[in-house]
Specification:
It contains ten helices and two strands, in the order H-H-H-H-H-E-H-H-E-H-H-H. By secondary structure, it is mostly helical. It has a two-stranded antiparallel sheet with strand order 1-2. Helix 5 packs antiparallel against helix 8 and helix 7 runs antiparallel to helix 8.
């Protein structure tokens, strides 16, 4: 008789077309608290019908990690002692805040890689620059020159992001082929802008930590470029575009 009652309780928790999903969810977990031994299988069955895809879970984790690291980065930059480097820190903060905003507002791509290496490259390539430290070792070149370089990089980066709009993303994906603006010069102008900004900041705040950080970042960015093109080259439009625009990152070099 007890087994029959339990079976009836389980059956009463099966979703019906007219059930309110929220009420059903509450009822499911209320039952779990009263009868934990027999409800686990039923709850797992319910969750399996609504389980998130692997890509969706990775997307959620990606956004959460980036937001946490960016919060720490913003605190470091804003709490550093004021001085001649304040404007440079502000430029870097603005530069790094743009991708965070676009990550949160981007649209779904036509095709997106589910390769672990692509997700690692995308995540590391975004997080590493957020670990830069504004040390007080003294600039290697005049601060004004560093600031000019960073502003040029910021302009290149913003120009590329304006063209991309909500097509921006961290992971290799096809969100539409862009061929106007700075994309007429190099195929990955946003990464080129990042590189210029990082060089300017490194010259203004030289340290072993920043050198290792930005050197690693550059290697990762090159890896991201190559992995992205591996996916994008499946699109005939991109192959035609790549035939017209020869260089990926730096004209006449790469």
């Amino acid at each position: 008789m007890r087994g029959y009652c339990f079976m009836r309780r389980n059956e009463s928790l099966q979703p019906r077309d007219h059930d309110n999903s929220r009420e059903y969810f509450v009822a499911r977990w209320a039952f779990a608290l009263r009868y934990p031994a027999i409800s686990f299988k039923a709850i797992r069955s319910w969750l399996s019908t609504r389980k998130l895809s692997r890509l969706m879970l990775l997307d959620i984790v990606e956004r959460a990690v980036v937001m946490l690291v960016f919060a720490r980065f913003a605190f470091v930059m804003l709490s550093a002692p004021s001085g001649t480097g304040s404007l440079l820190r502000l430029i870097l903060l603005v530069s790094e805040s743009l991708p965070v905003f676009l990550i949160l507002t981007r649209r779904e791509p036509k095709a997106r890689s589910d390769k672990t290496v692509d997700w690692l490259l995308g995540l590391l390539g975004t997080i590493l620059p957020l670990l830069a430290v504004p040390v007080a070792a003294g600039a290697l070149v005049p601060v004004g020159l560093c600031g000019a370089a960073m502003l040029i990089g910021l302009y290149v980066q913003i120009s590329a992001k304006v063209i991309l709009g909500r097509s921006f993303g961290l992971i290799a994906a096809n969100r539409g082929i862009k061929v106007t603006g700075p994309y007429r010069i190099v195929r990955h102008p946003m990464y080129a802008g990042y590189t210029i900004i990082h060089v300017g900041f490194l010259l203004a705040f030289p340290s072993l930590w920043n050198v290792v950080l930005y050197s690693t970042e550059l290697v990762i960015q090159i890896g991201r470029v190559l992995r992205e093109e591996l996916l994008l080259s499946q699109d005939q439009c991109y192959r035609d575009y790549a035939a017209r625009v020869r260089y990926r990152l730096i004209p006449m070099i790469f």
